Amino acid sequence: MEVSEHRFVATSSSGEVSSILMRPERAWALYLFAHGAGADMRHTFMAAVADRLAERGVASLRYNFPYMEQGRGGPNPAPVLVKTVRSAVAEAARLAPGLPLLAGGKSMGGRMTSTAAAAAPLDRVLGLAFFGFPLRAPGKHSAERGAHLTGVRLPMLFLQGTRDKLADLDLLRPLLATLMPAPALHVVDDADHGFHVPKRSGRTDDQVLDELCATFAAWAERVVGV
After folding, report:
1. CA angle (13, 19, 25) in 5-degree steps
2. What is the CB-side half-sphere exposure of residue 126 using CA atoms within 13 A?
3. Which of 44, 64, 105, 174 would be a feasible disulfide site paired with 34, CB 3.0-4.6 Å?
4. Whether 68 contacts 74, CB under 8 Å
5. What are the CA-CA distances from residue 206 to residues 14, 110, 162, 213 (Å)?
6. CATH of 2-224, one of 3.40.640.10, 2.30.110.10, 3.40.50.1820, 3.40.190.10
7. CA–CA separation, 156 vs 83, rounded Å?
């Protein structure tokens, strides 16, 4: 398997950011995997998902947003994050010109990817997948952060936990029912926003990650047409 690090220009004002390409032999798709607000592309969750996707033939490109690359405390303004997503798509197309592209990410990274896709098509991206879509801000009972999803005209996969405090399922399900094409929703019982499960669930976090990545791969096969 190829594992290599690369840098690309996120935006003209923000400069370069780092990325990690994982490409297994006989890869059949590549997933652009953006990190969440509080942890970078090397976070254990990001690395564990990338490893499991590679086992299933899915290459990945993890990348940092500028604020994380620069060690700053809070996320960049949304326009900078969205431009970074578009730059990452271009970098993936350059690094793996023969692979179908999928995009998304963990929490904020997924939301910024869908925001970009809703504004204008992402070149060569065939579908979006979200590991814990943050439907609302902490402390709010609202679906306002998902309003833009009506502008996304791609297959989408939502991987959500029943204990996710940023995505009440009673708000998410009605929203998804309004979208076309109809998105896929996979719910993990007892999982929180980070997909941790309590001991009483009878499962481990590793088992949950296996379930998430198996679900992702099955969805991706349908989208890509493998």
Report:
1. 150
2. 17
3. 105
4. no
5. 36, 21, 17, 11
6. 3.40.50.1820
7. 21
- Establish how many alpha carbons lie within 13 A of residue 6's alpha carbon, considering only the half-sphere containing its beta carbon: 21
According to DSSP, the residues that pair with 8 across neighbouring strands are 17
CB 93 within 8 A of CB 86: no
Domain ranges, ordered by start, for the chain: 2-224
Report the alpha-carbon distance of residue 190 to residue 176 in Å, rounded: 21
Neighbours of 121 (CB within 10 A): 12
pTM exceeding the 0.85 threshold for the entire prediction: yes
Q: What is the pLDDT of residues 165-211, one digit of tens each?
A: 999 899 999 999 999 999 999 999 999 999 999 999 999 999 999 99
**Cis upstream peptide for 121 (omega within 30°):** no
Write out the two tokens for 106: 């963990």
Distance CA 81, CA 116 (A): 9
- Phi/psi-derived region of residue 17, left when phi > 0, alpha when psi is between -120 and 50, beta in every other case: beta
Q: Which helix (H) or strand (E) holds 158?
A: strand 156-161
CB 91 within 8 A of CB 8: yes
